[in-house]
Design goal:
There is one protein chain. The protein is α/β, with parallel strands linked by helices. The protein has two domains: 163 residues, 3-Layer(aba) Sandwich (D-Maltodextrin-Binding Protein, domain 2); 120 residues, Periplasmic binding protein-like II (D-Maltodextrin-Binding Protein, domain 2, 3-Layer(aba) Sandwich), CATH 3.40.190. The chain is 44% helix and 18% strand. It has a six-stranded mixed beta sheet, with helices on both faces. A five-stranded mixed beta sheet has the order 7-6-8-5-9. β1, α2 and β2 form a beta-alpha-beta unit. The radius of gyration is 23 Å and the shape is globular. It starts with a helix and ends in a 6-residue tail after the last helix.
């Protein structure tokens, strides 16, 4: 018998071993998904929708754990310090991944080295909303109104260094306007003071503004994304209004601790991308003002690097500091 023939005859004995080596990673116990912000916000809602679908796909419960504090840093650090075994996930947003590091808010974690983003899960725009006492009916009229009154209007944000703060700083830089920053400890009180007229302007996510807009307690002027949004289809974009350089979107993604086995990353990433293509997930996201979207790990790495540079430039140019 030739060596070749003996090898061929022997091959089947090794097939089960080869098949086992190539089997995809599969969790055998409960997973946790850390959300670094309070329950009820867009990040929390998006994370919970994804967690529910992942539980179905992976065959194991995915439990959401809200770890709040320090602008998201507490939850991010908890995720980064977890065992890199595939059983801890993080909802990582544009704020914690590409803005907070420039502000010294992630001193304990190097997010670019200690976390790996598997896929984006949603995007959401911000909209310019104003108190009804502002006479402007369009974004162009609003910009002209503010230019004529430098430093006289106040804008609310959910905190110094928050996404809404940094987005508004970019908006002022592009439009050549000057307003006074009034930071709050979250968007709830900020919206309350916008409604009662304590502040006049806010760049806010649609999900938390839509009720007040529909009640005519505040007026929406434009949305920041690349296209009009389903919740407010008559609202023009920044680009349509002539201020395309101020166009921005918030986004959320699923990340794992660096060092998570490649097989686990591959399985989890595929499950996340399946989730955001699921009609039920898409519908539930849309109801919260979110657009379900996924991408590859390589695409997300390039995108995050670009976002990191962009927001670093804005933060330095606007001299944004967190004391």
């Amino acid at each position: 018998m030739s060596i070749t023939r003996r090898s061929l005859l022997a091959t089947p004995a090794f097939l089960p071993v080869a098949a086992a080596a190539q089997a995809p990673w599969q969790p055998t116990r409960q997973l946790r998904l850390i959300v670094p912000f309070s329950p009820g916000g867009s990040t929390d809602v998006g994370g919970r929708v994804i967690a529910e679908r992942l539980s179905e796909t992976l065959g194991q419960a995915v439990v959401v754990e809200n770890r709040t504090g320090a602008g998201g840093a507490v939850g991010v650090e908890a995720a980064a310090r977890s065992a890199p075994d595939g059983y801890t996930l993080l909802v990582a947003t544009n704020g914690v991944m590409t803005q907070a590091p420039h502000l010294g808010l992630m001193r304990a974690v190097d997010v670019r080295r200690e976390l790996v983003i598997l896929s984006k899960i949603f995007t959401t725009d911000v909209i310019v909303v104003v108190h009804p006492s502002i006479p402007a009916q369009t974004l162009q009229e609003f910009v002209a109104h503010v230019r004529a009154r430098p430093g006289q209007l106040s804008f609310a944000t959910s905190g110094v260094g928050s996404g809404t703060h940094i987005f508004t700083e970019l908006f002022m830089a592009v439009t050549g306007t000057q307003m006074v920053h009034v930071p709050y400890r979250g968007s709830g009180q900020a919206m309350s003071d916008l409604v009662n007229g304590t502040v006049q302007v806010m760049l806010d996510q649609p999900a938390s503004s839509i009720g007040q807009v529909r009640a005519r307690a505040i007026r929406a002027l434009a949305t920041s994304g690349p296209a009009r949004i389903a919740l407010l289809p008559d609202l023009p974009t920044f680009t349509e209004a002539g201020f395309g350089e101020a166009a921005v979107q918030s986004w959320g993604s699923i990340a794992v601790p660096a060092g998570t086995p490649a097989a686990a990353q591959e399985r989890l990433g595929a499950a996340v991308r399946e989730a955001v293509s699921n009609p039920g997930v898409i519908s539930r996201m849309a109801a919260a003002g979110l657009v379900a979207v996924g991408n590859s790990q390589a695409e997300m790495e390039r995108f995050t690097a670009q976002e990191f540079e962009r927001w670093g430039q804005v933060i330095r140019a606007r001299n944004i500091r967190v004391d």
